[in-house]
Amino acid sequence: MEAVADSLRKEELSRFPEPVIWKFGYGTAGFRDKADRLDRVVFRMGILAGLRSKCTGATIGVVVTASHNPVEDNGVKVVDPLGEMLAREWEIFANQMANASPDELGSVIAEIARTTGLDITSTGQVACARDTRPSGKRLLKHLLKGVELTGVDGRDYGLLTTPQLHYMVRCINTNEAFGVPTEDGYYQKLAMSFKDLLPKVLPSTAPRVRLDGANGVGADKARKLVQVIQATAGNIIDIEVFNDGTSGTLNENCGADYVKTQQKAPMGMEVNQGERCVSFDGDADRIVFFYMDSVQKFHLLDGDKIATLAAVFIYERLRMLKTDLSLGVVQTAYANGSATNYLNQSNIPVVCALTGVKHLHHKAVEYDIGVYFEANGHGTVVFSDQALETFTKAAEDGRLSEEEKEAGRQLLALSRLINQTVGDSLSDMLLVEIILMHKGWGCSEWNVMYTDLPNRQLKVQVKDRMVVKTTDFDRKCTSPEGLQEQIDALVFQETGGRSFVRPSGTEDVVRVYAEAEKRAAADKLAVEVAQQVYKLAGGIGGVPCL
Ligand code: G16
Predict the structure, then answer these.
(1) Nearest-CA neighbor of 2 among 76, 91, 106, 98?
(2) Coil/strand/helix, residue 379
(3) From atom 3 of ligand 1, which residue's Cα is the shortest distance away?
(4) Whole-number Å distance between alpha carbons of 304 and 453
(5) Is 263 exposed, middle or buried (0-12, 13-18, 19+ CB in 10 A)?
(6) pLDDT at 139 over 90
(7) Using CA positions, which residue lies closest to atom 14 of ligand 1?
(8) Does the beta carbon of 511 lie inside 6 Å of ligand 1?
(9) Which atom of ligand 1 is nearest to the CA of 28?
């Protein structure tokens, strides 16, 4: 073992002779930073993924992406065997490896091997992919080199959305029970399930969707998906793609994060009254919907609205089946108060988790059907084996009515349409489209399920964002001293007010969220809380404002 670790150390020194100067943390979704600081970390994550593959005896995935972050950033996310996020204990190993000095690296690797009992001589496979960032190719090469040095086979899938890579990993490790591990296999699975879910009476004209691809990898993949749907099921949905990266910059004035946080339509896309629009983020793992009404007012349908729509659709069918399967919705502190109230009133259990889909996913699998979405549009639905078995039996049970059998068939097809491994813009878009078709709704009918409380998100730059510490799923802050008291006092002044702050796990900022009954009050609360963060947590740059 020591000999292997030592040769890795020597190989690294020859590639990256400079000392380790940046401090990295495996944040909300892996390591993220300016791309030019990441070469060594990505190389080391190749080694880590190789070790993880040896340890699990399964294929591990790695995506080079910084998702919603600006184009000059990049990042690396490791994907576990069933397409889920990297196990917590390996996040700790990832941190140790990323921050070790070149001289310590060998012993860190040897310690990981000892602790996990992995056989360093075994083989394995790591599936790698990247988004469209200019730095992606260079970083992917480092990644593959790191994998190779562990004696594991590195497979380069090239340009994929993050959820597509999650899908590949799950397919490979389940011997294709989840699907065929190719890009075409992914489109075929979605297209077939979409076709299976079509209502008996189709809308008179195919739904039309205008798609903001954030100038990222999702734009081209959406076009490919549409082609496969048309070949499979005919012209049943019409999707026009904007911000496809041919002229604009990745995530700049466009994409799901921009639309959600700015609460306005992206640049690069003309939005006419009533048209259904969607925005993906840079690696297509988030989606939000939006439209303009007759007075050109912008309306956002975010992750909360998607979760509610999906949960109600599933709930109605579960009631038809009269099963005792459990259904629950997992949200984060960012969930709009109105969404939580609506679910409570609909008798659908709802719980809160820490920000980061990895946390929501863990909670969601506690239900037979767990719907989880972050308000930012990142989420999916997971189904237990028992739920799938129940739907399969119901779909074919001659003792049930046609309606009941149909409910079973639809839930089964839904479980295939949804990318259960992680939030997936393409799959989530089809999920919403099919539910809207069944309900005969457009965005405006969907939007009136409940009315969002006006809300505002801001970012505050501080010297060290980690001085902000939180508890109660981020809803209260315990440090710096006195900040929570200030927030409480400000919230107290606003009707329906709620606010919290937390350090971002993907950007070097503290995030501020505020909601209240009136738009002006939500904006005022957000600014005032941000100013307290600036004052008490060591703000830098300008004092926060709208
Ligand atoms: C990532 C995570 C999400 C999280 C988001 C923002 O999204 O996957 O779960 O909500 O970051 O995290 P934070 O507020 O900690 O910066 P993405 O789309 O960038 O991968």
Answers:
(1) 106
(2) strand
(3) 356
(4) 12
(5) middle
(6) yes
(7) 504
(8) yes
(9) 15
Give the separation between CA 14 and CA 6, rounded to whole angstroms: 13
> Which residue, among 217, 260, 25, has the nearest Cα to 225 in the 3D structure?
217
Q: What kind and span of H or E run contains 338? A: helix 337-345
Tell me the C-alpha to C-alpha distance, in Å, between residue 243 and each of 128, 253, 294, 372: 25, 10, 25, 28
Instruction: Give the residue among 246, 247, 250, 254 at the shortest CA–CA distance from 271.
Output: 254
Residue nearest to atom 4 of ligand 1 (CA): 356
How many angstroms does the Cα of residue 357 sit away from the middle of ligand 1?
A: 8
Q: Is 67 a catalytic residue?
A: yes
Cα–Cα distance between 25 and 36 in angstroms, integer? 16
Confidence of residue 533 (pLDDT cuts 50, 70, 90): very high
1-14 CB burial, b ≥16 within 10 A, e <16: eeebbeebbebbee
**Residue 165: closest CA among 285, 257, 58, 35:** 285
Q: Give the strand pairing for 276-280 and 208-212.
A: parallel
Distance CA 43, CA 430 (A): 36
Task: Find out whether the beta carbon of 285 lies less than 6 Å from any atom of ligand 1.
Answer: yes
Tell me the residue length of the chain: 546
How many whole angstroms from 505 Cα to the centroid of ligand 1?
Answer: 7
| Burial class of residue 37 (count of CB atoms within 10 Å of its CB; 0-12, 13-18, 19+) | middle
Q: Is the CB of 504 under 6 A from ligand 1?
A: yes
DSSP for residue 38: -
Place of tokens 């009315």: 451
Rounded distance between C-alpha atoms, residue 237 and residue 258, angstroms: 26
For the chain, the distance separating the N- and C-terminal CA atoms, rounded to the nearest angstrom, is 56
Model pLDDT, residue 267: 97
- Beta carbon of 380 within 6 Å of any ligand 1 atom: no
CB-ligand 1 contact for 166 (6 Å cutoff): no
Give, for ligand 1, the residue of 279, 506, 511 to mutate: max count of ligand atoms closer than 8 Å to Cβ: 506
Q: Which of 7, 14, 67, 401 is catalytic?
A: 67
Phi/psi for 75 (5° steps) reads -170, 180
This prediction's pTM: 0.95
Phi, psi (rounded to 5 degrees) for 346: -90, 5
pLDDT digits (tens, 9 = 90+) for 38-85: 999 999 999 999 999 999 999 999 999 999 999 999 999 999 999 999
DSSP 56-87: HTSEEEEEE--TTS-TTEEEEEEE-TTS-BPP
